[in-house]
Amino acid sequence: VGVSGAVESVKxxxxxxxxxxxxxxxxxxxxxxxxxxDEEPFRGLDVGYVLLTHGHADHFRQARALRHAGxxxxxxxxxxxxxxxxxxxxRAMFSWANPPxxxxxxxxxxxxxxxxxxxxxxxxxxxxxxxxxxxxxxxxGYLTADGVLFSGDALYTRELWREYPLPYAIDTGLVRRSLAxxxxxxxxxxxxxxxxxxxxxxxxxxxxxxxxxxxxxxAILLRLTREPRSTEExxxxxxxxxRLRDNLAQYWIAVTxxxxxxxxxxxxxxxxxxxxxxxxxxxxxPGE
Length: 288
Ligand SMILES: [Zn+2]
Fold this sequence. Notes:
The chain has 288 residues and is of the alpha/beta class. The protein contains eight helices and 15 strands. A hairpin with a 5-residue loop joins strand 2 (17-19) and strand 3. Bound molecules: zinc ion.
């Protein structure tokens, strides 16, 4: 018995469908990939397995309710802890200290849920697990037998970039590799965690655009650090340039994403860093 009888589901493949929402929830046979924000869209559906792409609370808001109704919760091994302990994600963004609640993005707020099995150990003949890290530590995508890739937050489409000029990611090197993985895969449609589904050709174009945006962010950071700049100055400089919202939740997202870029630029020796007057400074390497 499939779940195609879903009230508001939209078909994307022979058998695959999704429930549109702030986070898209995929549907394939008796599997749901990530969850909607409300109970309403999946009421009456027979969900055997909830396949989570990663441990950000906005992607598993209803996991508890679905588990209570009998579904098994499946998550990548190195993301499962964050599903069971969302407070750890909140602490991680604050260098493991406990952040005041006002500083925490709503993406990290949610109810914990026990994980029944790791995605890596969950064997299905009709769903392939594709590692897509970078947005989070060990995110995966799920590729169904009818050729639909549910990609979590690995690929941001232009639709998303317009709204979020600095989308969340922890490691730009890994994001780049995961985008390359997506471009090498065979599928008919890609359903991103946020935004409308796209065809494989569109996904290829969007992945290229995503990579270009990462290059542009690197270029801005290299320009901002022609003179040595403290971490806070770099954050402010980039935020002003991208006209980011000036609020605490956005600030902490920016801190992580910018550190992700700086770390990658340091690793590839395009920026150097040093400590002066109790502050860390970043400076573009000569020739950048
Ligand atoms: Zn996420």
